[in-house]
Automatic annotation (TrEMBL):
<keyword id="KW-0271">Exosome</keyword>
<dbReference type="Pfam" id="PF14382">
    <property type="entry name" value="ECR1_N"/>
</dbReference>
<dbReference type="InterPro" id="IPR025721">
    <property type="entry name" value="Exosome_cplx_N_dom"/>
</dbReference>
<feature type="domain" description="Exosome complex component N-terminal">
    <location>
        <begin position="8"/>
        <end position="44"/>
    </location>
</feature>
<dbReference type="GO" id="GO:0000176">
    <property type="term" value="C:nuclear exosome (RNase complex)"/>
</dbReference>
<protein>
    <submittedName>
        <fullName>Exosome complex component CSL4</fullName>
    </submittedName>
</protein>
<dbReference type="GO" id="GO:0003723">
    <property type="term" value="F:RNA binding"/>
</dbReference>
<dbReference type="Pfam" id="PF10447">
    <property type="entry name" value="EXOSC1"/>
</dbReference>
<dbReference type="GO" id="GO:0006396">
    <property type="term" value="P:RNA processing"/>
</dbReference>
<dbReference type="InterPro" id="IPR012340">
    <property type="entry name" value="NA-bd_OB-fold"/>
</dbReference>
<dbReference type="GO" id="GO:0005730">
    <property type="term" value="C:nucleolus"/>
</dbReference>
<dbReference type="GO" id="GO:0005737">
    <property type="term" value="C:cytoplasm"/>
</dbReference>
<dbReference type="InterPro" id="IPR019495">
    <property type="entry name" value="EXOSC1_C"/>
</dbReference>
<keyword id="KW-0963">Cytoplasm</keyword>
<feature type="domain" description="Exosome complex component CSL4 C-terminal">
    <location>
        <begin position="95"/>
        <end position="134"/>
    </location>
</feature>
<dbReference type="InterPro" id="IPR039771">
    <property type="entry name" value="Csl4"/>
</dbReference>
Length: 203
């Protein structure tokens, strides 16, 4: 391993600029003019004739979200145009450490995107099912709930009680029977299992 390959990177780290003599290889991906790491490991360079291939050699095989993955996450913060999430499960696998996720206003619903109000769709502490659409910035993943099967699956009311869905737009407090707006998942898929729920209850 030469001096250029001793850098340790994590998923989402920018490694270098793509050019005519430098291309993306295993363990990396391109966004625009830059090559990013998709693994935690060492940067390695392979010379192939007049081309240099940038690769990342992972420390170990670890599970990371990829485009199309259905994930289980907990909403951590709400802003006017987006919600921040902590990703705890990928499909039916519970992660050792959470990844960061972002749901933007335009990715909440399939219809009436201009009418979406983030605080009427999610609240901090809500457990949601979402799908990964792309790698974001600062080691985060862009998520969407713009499918009927995606959205809030577990929520706690303002009174601190469990909530149950009454429609695809509302959930009801089991203590006060008051309703609160949410973007509710139409069906809880099989990948939302009891171990996912137990993990999130402890966080």
């Amino acid at each position: 391993m030469d001096d250029e390959s001793v850098n340790v990177v994590t998923p989402g780290d920018c490694i270098c600029i793509v050019n005519e003599t430098c291309t993306s290889g295993d363990g990396t991906y391109c966004v625009g003019e830059y090559i990013f790491s998709s693994l935690t490991g060492f940067v390695d360079y392979k010379d192939d004739k007049n081309n240099r291939i940038v690769e990342v050699k992972g420390f170990e095989r670890s599970l990371v979200p990829v485009v199309g993955s259905v994930i289980t996450a907990k909403v951590t913060a709400i802003r006017r145009r987006f919600a921040k999430c902590a990703i705890y499960c990928i499909e039916d696998t519970v992660l050792k450490e959470p990844f960061r996720g972002i749901i933007r206003k335009e990715d909440v619903r399939l219809k009436d995107k201009d009418r979406v109000e983030m605080y009427k769709c999610y609240r901090p502490g809500d457990v949601i099912l979402a799908k990964v659409t792309s790698m974001g910035t600062m080691h985060s993943y862009n998520l969407t709930t713009a499918e009927e099967e995606l959205g809030v699956v577990l929520a706690t009311s303002e009174a601190g009680a469990e909530m149950v869905p009454t429609s695809w737009y509302e959930m009801m407090c089991t203590k006060t029977f008051l309703k609160e707006p949410r973007k509710v998942a139409k069906v809880v898929p099989q990948n939302f299992t009891s171990k996912n729920f137990n993990k999130l209850q402890k966080e």
